[in-house]
Design a protein that fits this description.
The complex is a heterotetramer, with two copies of chain A (256 residues) and two copies of chain B (310 residues). The model of chain A has no long low-confidence stretch (mean pLDDT 96). A nine-stranded mixed sheet of chain A has the order 3-2-1-4-9-11-12-13-14, with helices on both faces. In chain A, strands 6-5-10 form a three-stranded mixed sheet, with no helix packed on it. In chain A, 63% of the residues are buried. With 256 residues, chain A is of the alpha/beta class. Chain B has 310 residues and is α/β, with parallel strands linked by helices. In chain B, strands 1, 2, 4, 6, 10, 11, 12, 13 and 14 form a nine-stranded mixed sheet that branches. Chain B has a three-stranded antiparallel sheet with strand order 7-9-8. The longest helix of chain B is centred in the C-terminal third of the chain and has 15 residues. Chain B is globular and about 60 Å long. The mean pLDDT of chain B is 97. The chains are: A alpha/beta (256), B alpha/beta (310). Chains in contact: A-B, A-D, B-C, B-D, C-D. At the A-D interface, helix 3, helix 4, strand 8 and helix 5 of A face strand 5, helix 5, strand 6, helix 6 and strand 9 of D.
Chain lengths: 256, 310, 256, 310
């Protein structure tokens, strides 16, 4: 596919389109933050960004994108700095509409692993950084959208370790575990947009990005994907969307 | 958990919230549970209380940690059927509230008493989005059955603790020092319980002494105590707590309390009916109301406040 | 007794003497606050006053004594204003050494009633203002000292309503109720200093103020008082102590 | 409740707390549980961490919500036997921490993982003086058995909630913007979890960028986040988090992180031994340490911080 945009740009654009106006979004640094900033500048001017470092309503300064959720670049021109615990408590109370997340490993039920690969928890083959706020965001936001590169090694039948619970074992497993709110609504990848069957909670294809075939998606997915009744094709990024993104990240630190 | 569903269903906008007292107060419905910010005669949202009374709301439950004249007026006006509080009167020099005694002893108003911390934790638990928080207070006292306080067993040590239940008000009414048009609120001095009350309520109405440019809020984000997406209606009301105080801006008008209390001592509940006519139902706007005190009086109280906080 | 001090002055002086240096005290307005301020100026310069309105370390301005715990006079030159709930939580955590309290009605076990007199709770003969922070202070401070005028109508066999739990029914009743910390150590009145029997937790006379006899105390007490092994006589207020108090309250708003 | 007894037994003084880094760090004992303030590379108490390593403490448990180079240094120096955290690495551009992988995968360090909120609530519960607080997070995940999270039943609704256990550190180490000699501390910008950590710990050690007159604290009491009676030792340490950041004063030195990470990529753990010699064991004082970066570098980072917060 000879696109005039990078995979990261496509992710950010499609991610941004998921956000409605007059809402709040818990966004991590990198592509999620770019997607939120894009939505804010384009169709959701009354969107509030909330960042894990205890930051509400920042205005990201073009060219000074934060590397972490805990630095001045992430807090630039914020409206409130409530502290980390109280920021998450706003989510637990129900004030956070969307959560944007990534993930090293994701399975057919939208469970995410960012803790350990192989071996057991205490003596893993590979120790990953850990949950950070991912477990909280996926547990407490009204709706969670996962943004990730689509690779077979990431899309596995069952994650080695459930760091962040999606739909757990499917059906009403999440509710039975005491997670009475929220859930993963969408997985936006470099190949398409995925949702979950309302009954079984198994992942299904809902849209394919321009030039992407279902076979190509299956090739890059380590488990059997269901299909939505109607599979749409993603609207290509507009020049306007791409222009805003490129202004935000001129050094292409995250846009690739 | 119904409380959370109610919030999820509501728009959490970063848009403008500025409106009038009438419009803001109109969001209160008969029978609502209203939590008022501030404490005793400090930062009481009196302009909103007055407008709620002018709109003749009925059957309200007023929740406030320490209640003062705002509680007396709501009782006397017949607006409050129940109060949930830790303490009610004006202050030491004026003795036990005669209005409270009249209404509670006669049974026209129910007074549900919680300890000061317990009431604070009821707001805190709601703000945290949990049905209760454990505590070591109120145990063993006769207050336990009054509000139906339960206990909970610590799964780690087996110890028994008070399980203070979350309180989710239908409406929170707050008065703050400054806010931008988007409802990002800042408070100077003591914060009382306002931040928890705002996060606990389904609808949040705020009056502010000053509406400032967004830039001023963004210049000192560490002073913001209520984020805009929590606020539903914002009204610009200078001296919005008068004759109660606002930290650093004006001291409580103790002379006015004295006159008010003396009238009640002299003429009982009839004095309150007159007071309501003169200060609540009479003056159409808040500035008409402030004129009853006069600019000199307000200036004096402002000077006293500066002396104490300079 | 033709004393050169008022009952309130005596209360404040004896109250102040109960406070050690390098400690914290939760003090209400009026005599308790005067007592704490006196201790601070005299023998406890490193004492921290904590006030219910969410105020830590204020310096009371002579002649501008607060009427409530929630006003600028009480917060004058404070070092911290943490908010009310968090201020009480410092006590629950164990940071508050002393609590100073008054009380409308007190019984032989140091239980206090400030809620209702006569009738039942929901339809009382007399409705009092309520607990305020008294129940919390008596439940959470390491040690509570009650300062009160000594009158027979106040010192009753059993309070009508336990607003603030002292030793409840005596013995280990307080512990059994789940109040694993603190307790009422002393009751300082206008007639003497009282403590509690370490076993039965019943009130006992520990010291008599100058010129006060045991009979006079009994006359003004509505229940049988025990006696400490040795009953001391209170040192009279010194000119120094009285001078400090009178500077703090020149209008004698609280000193009588 | 032993945690409360420990506090009750200790003097809570309004007196002076000012001392040296050596004296402050000497209050840490081998085997202690240490909680560090700040978050990731923001307001990390690095001067205290460095001094603790210089004093060759052993068998420590380091608790911190998001861990960065301070955690790597404590692992590499053999000071930390266990870490309790939600996340550890330096930051996205530098990938997964090789030091963490080396020590955790080989079993020389145990990594106990909690969600970010859960760890924050562990400090919050301790600061509140209760053994647990209920929450709706971490349920259903494989993290539950890792730290032994229990559940609790809400006595009002019967709902099952996570019961997040209080964490009472032996020692809290914090870096703040300013304090008076009595230990009244103020923080600008984001507060992270410092206030809860201070109230949760048995002993509290603080470094401050600036020591200000008592009057300056009393002029803005609403900015104080840790009261003096909570603090045991206070040290004046400008640039006390460097190369980590301090809000408004200096930005994190990303170039230094880059050089540090590159050395590890090139020479693995040997690079850390060299780093410890050069930055920790070598320079006798913190200002000697800062000289390794040079005044120009510090001035540049200060300018960048002003640009972002002006």
């Amino acid at each position: 596919m000879s696109a005039s945009w990078t995979a990261a740009e496509l992710l950010a654009v499609v991610g941004a389109r998921q956000l409605r106006d007059d809402t709040t979004v818990f966004a991590g640094v990198g592509v999620p933050l770019l997607a939120a900033a894009l939505a804010q500048q384009r169709h959701a001017p009354r969107l509030t960004m909330v960042i894990e470092g205890g930051i509400i309503g920042p205005r990201i300064r073009p060219g000074r994108l934060p590397i972490s959720t805990n630095e001045m670049r992430a807090a630039h021109r914020a409206t409130m700095l409530p502290g980390i615990t109280d920021t998450f408590l706003f989510a637990q109370r129900g004030f956070l509409d969307y959560g944007f997340m990534g993930g090293a490993q994701i399975d057919r039920y939208g469970n995410i692993n960012t803790s350990v690969l192989g071996g057991d928890y205490w003596r893993p083959k590979v120790r990953l950084p850990g949950t950070g706020g991912a477990n909280d965001i996926i547990s407490l936001c009204r709706e969670v959208i996962i943004l990730t590169v689509h690779e077979r090694r990431r899309f596995v039948e069952r994650v080695d370790f459930v760091t962040s619970p999606g739909w757990l074992d499917g059906d009403d497993g999440r509710r039975r575990a005491g997670l009475v709110f929220g859930g993963v609504s969408r997985v936006v990848t470099t190949l398409g947009i995925f949702g979950f069957d309302p009954e079984t909670r198994r992942m299904r294809v809902e849209a394919l990005h321009p030039g992407v075939t279902l076979d190509r998606v299956r090739e890059h997915t380590g488990f059997e994907l269901l299909e939505a009744p109607r599979i749409a094709e993603t609207e290509p990024p507009t020049g306007d969307e791409l222009a805003i993104l490129r202004t935000l990240d001129p050094e292409r630190r995250f846009l690739g | 958990m119904a409380a959370r569903r109610r919030l999820e269903a509501k728009a959490k906008s970063a848009g403008e919230k500025l409106t009038s007292l009438e419009d803001a107060a109109a969001r209160v419905r008969d029978g609502d549970v209203i939590a008022a910010g501030g404490c005793l005669y400090s930062r009481t949202p009196l302009a909103l209380v007055r407008e709620i009374l002018r709109q003749r709301r009925q059957g309200l439950t007023l929740v406030r940690n320490l209640m003062c004249t705002e509680g007396e007026l709501m009782m006397a006006a017949g607006a409050a059927r129940r109060v949930v509080t830790a303490w009610m009167s004006i202050g030491l020099p004026w003795g036990v509230s005669k209005v409270m005694r009249e209404h509670v002893e006669s049974g026209t108003v129910v007074m549900e008493e919680w300890s000061h911390l317990a009431l604070g934790l009821r707001f805190r638990a709601a703000a945290m989005g949990v049905p209760f928080v454990p505590a070591l207070t109120m145990l063993g006292s006769d207050l336990v059955p009054v509000g139906g306080l339960q206990t909970v067993r610590d799964p780690y040590t087996g110890a028994t603790l008070a399980a203070v239940p979350a309180l989710f008000p239908d409406v929170a009414i707050l008065h703050v020092h400054r806010a931008d048009v988007f409802g990002n609120c800042q408070i100077d001095g003591y914060r009382h319980m306002d931040a928890d009350i705002a996060a606990a309520a389904a609808t949040v109405l705020v009056t502010a002494e000053e509406i400032v440019p967004e830039e001023e809020i963004r210049r000192h984000p560490d002073r913001t105590v209520v984020p805009g997406f929590v606020v539903d209606a914002l009204v610009h009301v200078p001296f919005g707590s008068y004759p109660h105080e606002c930290y650093g801006l004006y001291e409580a008008d103790f002379d006015h309390f004295g006159e008010y209390a003396a009238a009640i001592d002299a003429r009982g509940m009839r004095a309150l009916a007159d007071y309501l006519d003169r200060y609540v139902y009479g003056p159409p706007t808040w500035s008409d109301y402030l004129d009853l005190f006069g600019g000199e009086r307000l200036a004096r109280q402002a000077r006293l406040a500066r002396e104490l906080t300079a």
